[in-house]
């Protein structure tokens, strides 16, 4: 089994200033944090990419476009399913005073939860007010599956990865802890930023050496690496593909390190107007999202 190779190294999805239309592109500046640059309204140029983000044969052209608005690197319609791992970092399990799981803890969320790297995070009315509800941040490395995977071995698991990106698995703890099943509490609309870009798996370093950081209102809350994962990316893909086909476009959120808000004393809760930033290394970059309580902020999620 051969690894998936793409023409592009980093892929973004954006509205171009020249056309007003949505395009795919390869950033001209190789090491630019496109999420941070877009937030700071710095000029971003990209070589236009023709084709689908999920097609390894998508072609990088010489046509240069200007980013007017940075979007999620995958459209909701391209995301077949969102699989998420809970309690997958040893330091996070320790801070939560929970035993390390014997097998990956899996939950699902719908594509309607996905928003772009600069879109507002919506705190729904059912998770307000903040003195009764715990809305939390979770920086994560996200895996994008590129070809159908079923019953794959750990040795071959990374050959099924198209790309990696970052994400913020915003969690609504009051609802989460009310039941043993986390699907409902993790599925609220417009609550899960991903991006700012895809990094091709063929150009990605060891996925177990990636830095992760969350900064909330200027304060560092999480600062870890994927080396602390209980189940590695290889192990996760092999486990989840047992008798189950992981389709191209499926994404896997691989868990979060220590530093989440609900374990702090007093707890740190996401509230209206907060500036929440998650950074993932290896060329992925930063998602910068304002927290908006539904019915207050008036901001609309941009996919």
UniProtKB/TrEMBL annotation:
<dbReference type="GO" id="GO:0050163">
    <property type="term" value="F:oxaloacetate tautomerase activity"/>
</dbReference>
<dbReference type="Pfam" id="PF01557">
    <property type="entry name" value="FAA_hydrolase"/>
</dbReference>
<keyword id="KW-0479">Metal-binding</keyword>
<comment type="similarity">
    <text>Belongs to the FAH family.</text>
</comment>
<dbReference type="GO" id="GO:0006107">
    <property type="term" value="P:oxaloacetate metabolic process"/>
</dbReference>
<protein>
    <submittedName>
        <fullName>Fumarylacetoacetate hydrolase</fullName>
    </submittedName>
</protein>
<feature type="domain" description="Fumarylacetoacetase-like C-terminal">
    <location>
        <begin position="82"/>
        <end position="292"/>
    </location>
</feature>
<dbReference type="GO" id="GO:0046872">
    <property type="term" value="F:metal ion binding"/>
</dbReference>
<dbReference type="InterPro" id="IPR011234">
    <property type="entry name" value="Fumarylacetoacetase-like_C"/>
</dbReference>
<dbReference type="InterPro" id="IPR036663">
    <property type="entry name" value="Fumarylacetoacetase_C_sf"/>
</dbReference>
<keyword id="KW-0378">Hydrolase</keyword>
<dbReference type="GO" id="GO:0018773">
    <property type="term" value="F:acetylpyruvate hydrolase activity"/>
</dbReference>
